[in-house]
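Discussion board: Methods & Data

I've been asked by a reviewer to show the raw model output for two of the constructs in my manuscript, not just the figures. I'm not sure how much to include, so I'm pasting the format here to get opinions. Each protein appears as its amino acid sequence followed by a line of discrete structure tokens. Is this the kind of thing reviewers expect to see in a supplement, or should I convert it first? Here is construct A:
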Amino acid sequence: MIYLSVNWLAVALAAAVAWAFGAAWYMVLARPWLAAIGKTPEDIDRADYRPYIWSIVCVLVMAYFVAMLTPLIAGSTTLTNGLLVGAHLWLGFSITGMVLNHRYEGRSWTLTLINGGYLLAVLLIEGAIIGLFG
């Protein structure tokens, strides 16, 4: 397996679009998300840029793995296969890990749905873009 043989343009574009989607997702769902984590808008340090850097790094890593795993799992990199791999990665790892941790942490189902829905959309967006690039 050659780890660097992915379409880096597709990975970068997928990560950028996924990150932009995340910004919109959490702007729309800011109030229920804040309530689910038990914070108010005043509790959020808007000057702290580190969460934004981490989110860029994370969506980039996720896009890379979607690009690397799609041809290995599905046989070829197509739109349909990218979407299927993204959905399977979400179901197999993202949402199951989140549900497991949230239940032990006593987090609300609202938080699980908001964050889990975000991750599903990110993986589908990334899978679609990477699939379109082939």
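Construct B, same format:
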Amino acid sequence: MIKAPRFVPLPPWFGGDLQTLRNHLRPPRDDILAQWPGETLHFAMKDGTGDELIGTLHRPAEERGRPLVLLLHGLTGCQDSSYVRVTAREMLAAGYPVLRLNWRGAGPSLGKTQGFYHAGRSDDLTAVIGSMSGTLARNGIVAIAYSLGANVLLKYLGERGGLSHLRAAIAVSPPIDLLAAQQRIAEWRNRRYHRYLLARMRAERPCPDDIVTILEFDNRVVAPANGFRDALDYYAQCSAGPRLGGIRTPTLVIHAADDPWIPSKVFRAIAWDQFRHVHLLMPWSGGHVGFHALGLRRPWHDEVALRFIESRC
């Protein structure tokens, strides 16, 4: 296991809510990736829909023989989400090529696909990784995923087992129990988060006007569109938690104990020592995909991810 620096919140971002909100209140500059020009890549899905996933590839200034870092965004995000761009900058500066991937129907493919991403659509990740050229993946692939995308990544790893094509993986703030995450975000104290997320979900795809909760959205939009009986069936079939034991790729799970969106009790209930290949880091603070730390020039989760990748690759 890596030696992670102790997490100390960066003032004035104290508590899970402020740690979470900082990405929105203090977004990075638009040009933080300007010194690494991007190349658009298209990955055709072979499921008969004609859909494709689109990503942007960046190469470091100097080729160092390091693995490609695949970045996977969360719910209502895309390749331009602030946390994705910041991690891309840190990885490129460290000499890693980076691919910022958009899930099906997100980012540049918004409104252009028949299907749409969801928390369990691991087949799309399998298709993308399997179709990467030998040149692109000649030094191997490492994946870093956030929130909903992190659940997809962990589900993929558990399903593929020893057949995973990844050298290492990092899952940041993953909702590994989707029902528990839905119940937490629906709490009164999270009503503003809930309203914000639902508005963005409604903007991404058509849905009935009378849907007023995420549970209803999952029940009436996501579930029927993807062959699930209802929202509860969707949550049960797609939660990554029960699949952690099948992972054979070196994997780091990062979750903050004060994450306002995903209850830490889900992580505390798991006997992590039973897993040979999966490790949990759960600092006392950090929020949801926040981890803004005192004394570090980059987010704490990026510092830890770099150390983990270097120790495994």
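Answer (T.O., handling editor elsewhere):
This is acceptable in a supplement if you add a one-line summary per construct. For B, something like: The chain has two domains: 16-177+246-312, 182-238.
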